[in-house]
Write a structure and sequence with these properties.
- The protein is an alpha+beta fold and about 400 residues long.
- Helices cover about 40% and strands about 20% of the residues.
- Strands 2-6-7-1-5-4-3 form a 7-stranded antiparallel sheet. Strands 10-9-8-11-12 form a 5-stranded mixed sheet, with helices on both faces. A two-stranded antiparallel sheet has the order 13-14.
Length: about 400
């Protein structure tokens, strides 16, 4: 194995608290939410009345006074309440930097979380189970420890999901061992009918089916949602039905993340370099296919590939989003300007090659990657090697010359 690097790594485990422990965890989550909303409301009011600007350290000093005014806050770990103020500070910074909207109040039905620095204890009791000891909690909470925790533990985060489940996230600093170099690169063209079309430098191509988890359960979700709309808000029946709907969404989310993690890890393990299109995914949400695009989670897939490639010593190459990978013949370079989105196959009028739209796009992206790597630029990047090529037959010719003919 090659030398590794220190990285911020997280482990996620499911908690199985007793009824009393659930109440403690819910109070802790509620206290964090209360502090966040109180500080946000006060900051808005003071700015409107006095023009006072946000200062995280001044508002943090209010916590002791807040505990005296609201004694229930004393039942929760003090570090969690301090972290709520720092989270609000991050939200303000993101807003002022133009990265997000103005901070919004947190809602109880959305769940929540609380943070704890070292001061807790995680103990394994057998091959499957462990115990989590928290400050101000007498009895430990059962944890499903499906894997060992490696590295130096920095902090933990306990999250309550909208479906009522509790999850433990353990943040550690650990040495990530880089993978052995392999003599293969791949290019990925994402889509809706197939989640991804992957072309490899050894000539092999594959189409990964789109699992469409949300689409497959949307009828059941709609049925349960209609039941929820008929319940009286705030009643026990409403809360029971809300949990049913939330559990359906949580299952879809877990299935999707499991699929994306496994696929991204396989791709990173088997390839030395990965070529992707630099898609503006956010701009696609406004169209008729927005629901299917959101279900595919391309952006999250790209994020998983990005950090795993960085960890394990792989090269990630983003092609220019205007690079005509689908319209260009990967054999001769002819550009089909009349190609429509509905055209899944087309025949090149110059060389006579019949193209599958997605595989042709993948092979053009592969040529793009060859040109990028032979130019001497490596590492996760968004450099555009061939995106500016123009003309009908000449487009992408520099990419083809740098690549291999093994997949033609």
């Amino acid at each position: 194995m090659r030398a590794g690097k220190q990285a911020n790594y997280s482990y996620k485990f499911k908690l199985y608290p007793t009824k009393e422990q659930k109440q403690f965890l819910k109070r802790a989550v509620g206290s964090v939410r209360f502090v966040y909303n109180y500080m946000l409301a006060r900051a808005k009011e003071e700015y409107q009345k006095e023009g006072k600007k946000w200062n995280v350290y001044e508002y943090k000093k209010l916590l002791p006074l807040l505990k005296e005014e609201y004694p229930f806050l004393k039942e929760s770990p003090s570090q969690s309440l301090q972290e709520a103020v720092f989270n609000l500070d991050k939200a303000f910074k993101n807003f002022f930097a133009g990265r997000s909207d103005f901070p919004a109040f947190k809602k109880k039905e959305h769940g929540g979380s609380f943070y704890l620095p070292p001061g807790f204890k995680i103990e394994r009791i057998n091959q499957k189970w462990g115990l989590l000891w928290l400050p101000k909690l007498k009895e430990p909470i059962k944890v499903r420890l499906h894997r060992d925790i490696e590295g130096d533990i920095a902090a933990i985060n306990v999250r309550l999901t909208p479906a009522g489940s509790f999850y433990l996230t353990v943040r550690v600093y650990k040495e990530i061992q880089k993978l052995k170099p392999v003599d293969r690169i791949c290019a990925i063209d994402v889509g809706l009918k197939h989640f991804a079309t992957i072309c490899y430098s050894d000539g092999y191509s594959e189409k990964v089916e789109n699992p469409k988890y949300l689409v497959k359960t949307e009828k059941r979700v709609a049925k349960e949602q209609r039941k929820l709309s008929r319940k009286q808000k705030g009643s026990k029946n409403y809360e029971k039905q809300r949990l049913k709907v939330a559990k359906l969404h949580e299952k879809v989310k877990n299935q999707r993340e499991d699929f994306l993690h496994k696929l991204s890890r396989r791709i990173v393990s088997e390839n030395q370099a990965i070529v992707l299109e630099d898609l503006n995914v956010k701009s696609l949400f406004s169209g008729n296919l927005s629901r299917h695009i959101q279900d595919s989670s391309w952006r999250k897939f790209f994020e998983y590939l990005s950090y795993k490639a960085l960890w394990y010593g792989r090269d990630l190459i983003f092609a220019d989003r205007f690079y005509p990978s689908s319209k260009t013949c990967h054999v001769c370079g002819y550009k089909n300007q009349e190609l429509k989105l509905s055209d899944r196959e087309w025949v090149c009028p110059v060389c006579g090659t019949r193209h599958d739209r997605d595989i042709n796009a993948g092979k053009n992206l592969l040529l793009y990657g060859f040109a990028h790597l032979t130019s001497g630029r490596v590492g996760p990047t968004r450099a555009y090697a061939c995106g500016g090529a123009k003309g009908s037959v000449e487009a992408g010719s520099s990419c083809r010359e740098a690549g291999s003919s093994s997949f033609q």
